Each structure stands twice: as C-alpha cells, then as structure tokens.
Amino acid sequence: MKALVYGGPGRNSWGETPDPRVIDPRDAIVRVDAVTICGTDLHILGGDVPAVRPGRILGHEAVGTVQEVGSAVSGLQVGDRVLASCISACGTCVYCRQGRYGQCLGGGGWILGHTIDGVQAQYARIPFADLSTYQLPASISDEAAVLLADILPTSFEVGVLNGQVQPGDTVVVVGAGPIGLAAILTARLYSPSHLIAIDKADSRLQAAKQFGADITIRPDDDPLEVVRSVTDGLGAHAVLEAVGIPETFELCTTLVRPGGRVANIGVHGRPATLHLEELWIRDVTITTGLVDTYSTPRLLNMVAAGQLDTGRMVTHRFALDDIIEAYDIFARPAQTGALKVVLTRS
C-alpha cells in the first residue's frame, strides 16, 4: 500500500509501505476512505513531538471501511463504515474506567501517527477497535464525519468544557484555525454574550465570523482594550488558546478576568512563561488537556440532527495520492486560505 511516512523534521514522503496486519485480537484493519491533516501533524514535521520517530506513518483522523477484524472484536463486521477516533482506549485501565481515554495506560491514548503507524495511508490498523471506532449512519458524509475524529471533540472537551463556558459569558478564542473555529462552533451551543476571535490572517477572521464570532481582532489591534471595552473593563470569562506558541498562551493570560478560565488547547513545542506573580491573586484557572473523545457520540448525534454544521470548515479537497500537495496547502493558510483539507480514496 501507499502511505505518508515521516522522515524527520521537515521531511515526509508518499510511497510504498507494507500492508498493516492484525497484531492483537482486538485490532481491526480499515480501508481509509477519507482522511485529513491536523495542525498536530505540522507540529510533528516541525520537530515539536520528538516521540514520533522517522519511519512512522502519520495521521490520526480518518473514516474508513472495515476490511478485517481480530478474533476478540465483537462490535464490528467486515464492510462496516466507521469513524476512527484519534484516541484509542483499552477500556480496562484506571483512566479508561474514568472515561479519561487520552491517558490510557493499557496501550491506548494518542497512539495513531504518534507511537504507532497512523491513518494517512490506504489502509490502517486500528487497535482496540470496539472502543476506538464509531459506526456511522448513512446520513453523515465521510467529509463531515472525519472532522469528528479529532478537532470537534478536542475543541469541545479541552476548550469549551474545560473552559466552563456558560450562557452570557464573554469567550475569547485565540487562533482561528480549524481548532479555533471548532471551539467557536461548539461554544455557541452555550449562548455566550460575546464570542471574540483573534488571529493574524484576515481569511481566518472572516471564517470566524461565519462560524459565530461577533467580534474579530488582529493581534496588533490591542486585543486587551477591545476585550475590556465589552466587559466593563473586567476581561473575558473564558479564553481558549488554539495555536500552541508561547506568545498566544501569554496573550490569553492577559485577557482573562479575575476568577476566569484559560483553557489551553494548542500543542506546544516550546516553553511558555507563566506569570504566576500576576495571576495568583486573580483566582485564574488554567487547564490543559489531551482530548478523551468521550463527547464523540454526542457530537455525532448533533451532526446527524443538523445542529452542528461542519461543512464550511473544509476548504480544499484532494485525492489521497496528492497528500504532499495537500500538506503544502494546509501549511500555508495565510496564502492559501486553507482551513481543513480532506483527502479521499481515488
């Protein structure tokens, strides 16, 4: 088969690799029908995730068709159409029993495209298949479903829920890329009084408006003054970091009000300064997290019911064989206007 293989920082290639096979009785082999590229994949290529070693097949977001199941798989059959979650779950360790699947101690967590081969390939092995896939109704397209593999549950759980967004809150989302847009989309479910998006790219600020932001700001337009002007000088109730660089995290801590929450979603590859000398007295809560994907069934139901419109997030479509071009387009959003790119089987 062909797959996208990581060759070290700044290097990837699309070429022939061995077909995946069932290794554990709980595995399934899936033909990849649709896949997307995540900002985390760009962090890997940037050298920010050293656990990913050269030779690894990248990717952790896919929709596919089951081709083979291990002897211990009971909930899937050959031919089933499934969403492959970005998080794998053994189901029996202490963290899985708490629903904290991202911290799985039994060989799961974020492993696809990280510590084992991922899904940017023609075929993929999905460990713990009964707990790490979701059967899809015919009413949800591959393109809509693939956005539920990672960015929707990540933004919802690590951003909106960790940030404890409540009706009437002022919510700031720093970074209007796919994760930030998904945070805006799901924050709207809680009827905030203001949804403010901050980004450098005009195209992404325009997208943020389409997804529900009522105020958009460039970083050089004095975000602190704008936020204070709509909050009686107090600052935002919840600030969601959706970039993953020190500057954006530090900006978030300046925009939050006393008693507010900063929810970090972004993947950081460098240390960020934490100004505890200023924050400790303001009762600010800071949360971090890897998505657990416990919300995926709920989000699938909302997409199926028409309550979440994810279609506008996909800006570019490619055949799977054109994945190198897709990476180039996705990595240059300011020039290309790319939000999410979706690649499908030819």
TrEMBL record:
Cofactor: Zn(2+)
Short name of one Pfam family: ADH_N
InterPro entries: ADH-like_C, ADH-like_N, ADH_Zn_CS, ER, GroES-like_sf, NAD(P)-bd_dom_sf
Domain Enoyl reductase (ER): residue ranges: 7-343
PROSITE patterns the UniProt entry points to: ADH_ZINC (PS00059)
Alphabetized UniProt keyword annotations: Metal-binding, Oxidoreductase, Zinc
Stated family: Belongs to the zinc-containing alcohol dehydrogenase family.
Protein name (database record): Zinc-dependent alcohol dehydrogenase family protein
Top-level taxonomy: Bacteria, Bacillati, Actinomycetota, Actinomycetes, Micromonosporales
